[in-house]
Amino acid sequence: MYKIGEFIVYGNDGVCRVDDISELSIGGSSKGKTYYTLKPMHENGTVFAPIDTTVFMRPIVSYEEVHKLIEQIPSIKEIDHDKKSVRELQEYYKKLLKNHDCMDLLTVMITLKDKKNAAATNGKKLSQMDDKFMRTAKNLIEGEFSIALGIEKDDVELYIDDSLEKM
Half-sphere exposure (CA, 13 Å, Cβ side) for 39? Predict the structure, then answer.
């Protein structure tokens, strides 16, 4: 069970702060059921999640873990998109995004960023689906890293680039 004040990754809502843990009587909810009251850190609103939800939840990575992940970026092996069908790639990207593992998210983000740059070199664009996967992975990574590093979400990409340059 998570604690009040703790930051967690909650499904595709990204990073949320646990603001309360209590029984709620929301229309249609089971009486006596305990819920987390979650505050998305990069979105408006409130999320009420049963503590026994099947939605993916985990604590955010630590400051130290973020730096270890950044150090591993140069060794990330891109997904070989030439050997898989579009459908296979989409299913694979979905699976990696659903894992909410930072290394998987970085792999998707870097693979599709490089694919986008290669397409631009040839006067083409990234497909809408690939662009959506790239933006989703980037949003999740930047949201989590911003909280762990104590910086603004919009500054994460520059922080990663600066860290890589210093290596």
Answer: 9
CB 96 within 8 A of CB 89: no
Is the alpha carbon torsion for 100, 102, 103, 109 positive or negative? Answer: positive
pLDDT tens digit sequence for 31-76: 678 999 999 999 999 999 999 999 999 999 999 999 999 999 999 9
Q: What are phi and psi of 86, to 5 degrees?
A: -60, -45
- Per residue in 118-131, pLDDT (tens digit) is 899 999 999 999 99
Six-digit token string for 143: 């949201």
4, 43 contact by CB (below 8 A): no
Q: pLDDT (tens digit, 9 = 90+) per residue, 103-113? A: 999 999 999 99
d(CA 91, CA 87): 6
> H-type helices in 73-151, by residue range?
86-99, 102-121, 128-149
CATH classification code of 61-166: 1.20.58
For residues 48 and 34, is the Cβ–Cβ distance under 8 A?
no
* 29 pLDDT above the threshold of 60: no
